[in-house]
Automatic annotation (TrEMBL):
Residues in coiled coil: none
Ranges that cross the membrane: 43-61, 73-92, 98-119, 131-151, 157-183, 195-216, 222-240, 260-280, 300-320, 327-349, 355-377, 398-417, 470-490
Organism for this UniProt entry: Entomomonas moraniae
Localization terms from the record: Cell membrane
Protein known as: MFS transporter
C-alpha cells in the first residue's frame, strides 16, 4: 500500500466515529430517560446539541486548519473528542451529558475539515482525488447509517456509556498514527481565525431553540422564553447583517440572493430535517410503543439509512437524464408520499410495507440532497465555490439539529393534547405524564396499582401513535407545498444555470 492510500485509511478511521456519533443516540432515548432521569426536553438537547454546535464551528475550524495545518488540527480535535467521550460516558446526569456532547461537537468540528483537507492535499491526481473524496463521503453516510445499529447493539449488551467509550481506543490509535504517518506541515500565520463571530452565532441559535422548546412546554412559562427567543433572533440577524457588510465574510450570505442557490439551501435543510426528525420519532415509537429492544429498533431502521446512501448516486444519473427541476421536485414529492404512507402504517403488523416506505423515503431524501448540492454548486460563481460549499455544510448540520427540534416539539404538543389521563393519578404525576411518553412510562413504574399502571401505559402508547400520525401528515403536507416552490424556482437543466 502506498503512503497516500495509507493516509486515506487513517482518515477513514478518524472520520468514522464523528459520523457515527451524529446518530448513535437515536435509539438511546428510552434508556437515557430511565438511567439519567432525563426529561423529554433534556433528551432533545442531548441529541441535537451535537449538530447545532458543529454547524456554527465548521467554518472557523476549517480556517484554523489552514492556519495550523490539518495534522495539528486533527490531533487537537481528536484529543478533545476523546476527553469529551470519556466525560459523556461517565455523565451522572442529563446536564453533564449535554455539556460533554457539545464538547464532542467541538472536537468533531475540528476533525471533519481536517480529514477533508487531508484528502485534498494528499491526492494531487484529479481522478485519484475524486475517488478518495467519494470514499470520504461514503464513510460519512455509512457512519450515520450504522449509528443507530451500533448504539442498539451496545445498549443491548453493555452500559449506555459504552456508546462513547468505544471512541477512546480509536482516538488513541489515531493520534499515534497521525504523529507517525502524516508528514510535517508548515503553519500559515497569515490565515485569519475569527472564532468570536462563530461563538456568537451559536449562542443566537441556542437561545432561539431554547425559547422554542420552552414555550411548547405545558408549564405555561412564556415571558422569559420570548425574551430569550427575541435576543437569539437579534444576535442571528446582526451576525448575518455584519457578514453581508464585511469585506472578508466568514459566510458569504450574499450568495443566497440567487434564487436557485437559496432554494438549494432550503432543500438541503428540509431533507436533513425530514430524515433526522423521522429517525428520532421512529426510534422512540419502536421501543416505547412496540417494545422492541434498542438493537432490534436499530435493525428495523437500517433500510431507511442505507437507502438514503444510495439515493445520491441514483440522483446523479437522473439529473443528467431528466433535468434538475424534475428530479428535485420528484424527490420531494416521493418524500411527501412516504410520510403520508408511514403515518397510516403499523410497523409491527405491516413491517414489509413500512420498510418499503422507508426505502422510498431514504432514496428520495438522498435524491433531494444531491439535487440541492447540484443547485448550490452549479449556481455559485467559480471563485465562490468554497463559500457555497460552506453554506451547504451549515445547512446540513442546521437541518439535522432543527429536525430533532421541530419533530420533537410537534410530537410533544400533539401527544400532550391527545393523552387520556386515567383516574387515580396525583396532580404532580399528571403534569409529568402529559409532557412525554418517557415520563409517562417512568410514572407508571412507580405506581403501586398494577391496573392503573397498565391503563397509563396504554393511554401513553395510544397518544404517541396518534401524535406520530399527525406529525407525519403535517410533515408530508409541508413537503408537498415545498415541491411546488421547487418546481417554480429551479431550472430544468443543470446546463441552464448561469455562472456570474
Amino acid at each position: 500500500m502506498s503512503n497516500k492510500w495509507l493516509i486515506l485509511s487513517l482518515i477513514i478511521v478518524i472520520y468514522l466515529p464523528v459520523s457515527i456519533d451524529a446518530t448513535v443516540l437515536h435509539v438511546a432515548v428510552p434508556t437515557l430517560s430511565v438511567q439519567l432521569s432525563a426529561s423529554a426536553n433534556d433528551l432533545l438537547w442531548i441529541i441535537d446539541i451535537y449538530s447545532l454546535v458543529m454547524a456554527g464551528l465548521l467554518l472557523p475550524m476549517g480556517a484554523l486548519g489552514d492556519r495550523l495545518g490539518y495534522k495539528k488540527l486533527a490531533v487537537i480535535g481528536l484529543a478533545i473528542f476523546g476527553f469529551a467521550s470519556l466525560g459523556a460516558a461517565l455523565a451522572p446526569n442529563a446536564i453533564v451529558l449535554i455539556i460533554t456532547r457539545a464538547m464532542l461537537a467541538i472536537g468533531a468540528a475540528m476533525i471533519l475539515p481536517a480529514t477533508l483537507a487531508g484528502v485534498r492535499k494528499t491526492f494531487s491526481d484529479d481522478n485519484e482525488r475524486a475517488m478518495a473524496l467519494g470514499i470520504w463521503a461514503t464513510v460519512g453516510v455509512a457512519g450515520a447509517a450504522i449509528g443507530p445499529l451500533v448504539g442498539g447493539y451496545l445498549l443491548q449488551y453493555f452500559y449506555w456509556g459504552s456508546v462513547f467509550l468505544i471512541n477512546i481506543p480509536i482516538v488513541i490509535f489515531a493520534i499515534m498514527a497521525i504523529l507517525i504517518i502524516i508528514p510535517y506541515q508548515e503553519q500559515n500565520t497569515q490565515q485569519k481565525w475569527e472564532i468570536g463571530k462563530a461563538l456568537l452565532f451559536i449562542v443566537g441559535i441556542l437561545l432561539l431553540i431554547y425559547a422554542i422548546k420552552t414555550m411548547f412546554r405545558s408549564s405555561g412559562e412564556f415571558v422569559i422564553p420570548l425574551i430569550l427567543g427575541i435576543t437569539g433572533f437579534i444576535i442571528i440577524f446582526s451576525f448575518i447583517k455584519n457578514e453581508l457588510n464585511s469585506t472578508a465574510p466568514m459566510i458569504d450570505f450574499s450568495l443566497l440572493k440567487q434564487k436557485v442557490l437559496a432554494m438549494g439551501t432550503v432543500m438541503a435543510m428540509t431533507a436533513m430535517i425530514s430524515i433526522v426528525g423521522f429517525q428520532l420519532l421512529m426510534a422512540q415509537e419502536l421501543q416505547f410503543v412496540y417494545d422492541l429492544t434498542p438493537l432490534k429498533a436499530g435493525l428495523f431502521m437500517l433500510p431507511l439509512m442505507l437507502a438514503s446512501g444510495f439515493g445520491g448516486p441514483i440522483a446523479g444519473w437522473l439529473v443528467v437524464r431528466f433535468g434538475l427541476r424534475l428530479v428535485a421536485t420528484g424527490g420531494i414529492v416521493i418524500s411527501s408520499f412516504s410520510f403520508f404512507g408511514l403515518a397510516l402504517c403499523d410497523f409491527l403488523t405491516s413491517p414489509y410495507i413500512a420498510w418499503a416506505l422507508m426505502v422510498l423515503l431514504g432514496l428520495s431524501v438522498g435524491i433531494a440532497l444531491l439535487a440541492s448540492t447540484t443547485a448550490i454548486m452549479s449556481t455559485a460563481p467559480v471563485n465562490k465555490s468554497a463559500s457555497a460549499g460552506a453554506i451547504e455544510g451549515m445547512a446540513y448540520e442546521l437541518g439535522a439539529g432543527f429536525g430533532i427540534v421541530l419533530f420533537g416539539m410537534m410530537l410533544t404538543v400533539i401527544y400532550s393534547h391527545n393523552i387520556v389521563i386515567p383516574d387515580g393519578l396525583l396532580p404532580a404525576q399528571i403534569g409529568l405524564v402529559e409532557s412525554s411518553i418517557s415520563e409517562a412510562f417512568s410514572v407508571a413504574k412507580h405506581i403501586d396499582r398494577p391496573e392503573l399502571s397498565e391503563q397509563l401505559i396504554y393511554a401513553a402508547k395510544e397518544a404517541f401513535v396518534n401524535a406520530h400520525e399527525f406529525v407525519l401528515v403535517i410533515a408530508g403536507t409541508l413537503l408537498a407545498i415545498l415541491s411546488y416552490f421547487v418546481w417554480q424556482f429551479l431550472p430544468n437543466k443543470v446546463e441552464a444555470i448561469k455562472h456570474n
